[in-house]
Amino acid sequence: MLNFHKEHKNLVLTAGGVFIALSILIAILPAFQMQGTEPIPDEQPLTANEREGLHVYVAENCMACHTQQVRNIEMDKVWGDRPSIPSDYFYSKKRMDVWRQSPSILGSERTGPDLTNIGKRQPSEDWHLLHLFNPRAVVPASVMPSYPWLFREVDSAYMPKDAKVVAVPKQYFNKPGKKIIASYDALRLVDYLKYLKQTDMPSGDINDFIPALKKIQAARTEGGAQSLDGAKLYSQVCAACHQDTGNGIVGAFPSLVGSSIVNDDNTETLIKIVIQGYNARTDYGVMPPFGDQLTDAEIAAILTHERSSWGNDAAPVTEDDVAKVRQYVEMELNK
């Protein structure tokens, strides 16, 4: 039994061990996991100007008041189309070099509104510049401080070439013959803020996200169950997220390779996920339901392909298996 009152060496070693363990669990492991994420297919990298704007954002400590993370709770729905996932930060959180980690931009305070989707909510450059010069000019009740050092007051007769003039209302700036122009840093900061838009993910409107489903549904009367090709159906319906390799996209869509759910002898959970969709509070995007889009035979063909590909070696899924689970799901919904 350790006696921390008398054995100070043990106290120091234990405290040090706990500190190291917590550091690994809370800081080091998440950092390594973050570096292993991949971008969402349509996600755009930051341009040179936008990345400079990110550096200005960090230098001005904007994350002290603003977050960039939509939580999977009701009160956060106003800030984004969906909860944030690791892949959302693939480009902005890339490691700067071997020795320097990317700057922390997620924030922890919600003194100001979340900025995850500010580029969609407010795409106007003029609005952002005026807001930075004096937030009360556009949001009367704002508690955000002004950033006058990001702007310059110049004589109208000696306006620099290509200067960006900020249209400031007279009650906030009224000096005849003078204008307010945005500095280089202000323009780059606005470039970064306009970049902040959530990348579109699969939604409930599956036909729009996966146009191939329309072709599949139209071809049913021609091919019938005998012509079902699980690999082809998977490529048309599932590969957009889970990829042709089945590896998914780290930080966005889970891998099917070696998945315990995909390879489980009991296929009920796997079938229910395809029929009902999946929206657990995890690090992955929402999977929409396919029960109304695919027949029992089509779902069986897709799942059989998944369970026999990429090194997976599990028994086939039959049309009867899917029908039984679908009947159970419908009974649960009608209770």
How would you summarize this macromolecular structure in one to three sentences?
The protein is an all-alpha fold. The protein has three domains: 1-35; 43-201, Cytochrome c-like domain (Cytochrome Bc1 Complex, Chain D, domain 2), CATH 1.10.760; 206-333, Orthogonal Bundle (Cytochrome Bc1 Complex, Chain D, domain 2). Helices cover 40% and strands 3% of the residues.
Description of the molecule:
Helix 4 crosses helix 5. The mean pLDDT is 85. The protein has 335 residues and is mostly helical. It is globular and about 80 Å long. The chain contains 13 helices and two strands. The longest helix is centred in the first third of the chain and has 28 residues, at 8-35. The N and C termini lie far apart (56 Å). A two-stranded antiparallel ribbon has the order 1-2. The chain folds into three domains: 1-35; 43-201, Cytochrome c-like domain (Cytochrome Bc1 Complex, Chain D, domain 2); 206-333, Cytochrome c-like domain (Cytochrome Bc1 Complex, Chain D, domain 2). It comes from Gelidibacter gilvus. Residues 48-200, 225-310 form the Cytochrome c domain. One of its GO terms (molecular function) is metal ion binding. This is C-type cytochrome.
What's the layout of helices and strands?
Elements: H1 8-35, H2 48-59, H3 118-121, H4 125-133, E1 151-155, E2 178-182, H5 184-195, H6 206-209, H7 212-223, H8 230-237, H9 239-242, H10 260-263, H11 268-276, H12 296-307, H13 319-333
Antiparallel strand pairs: 1-2
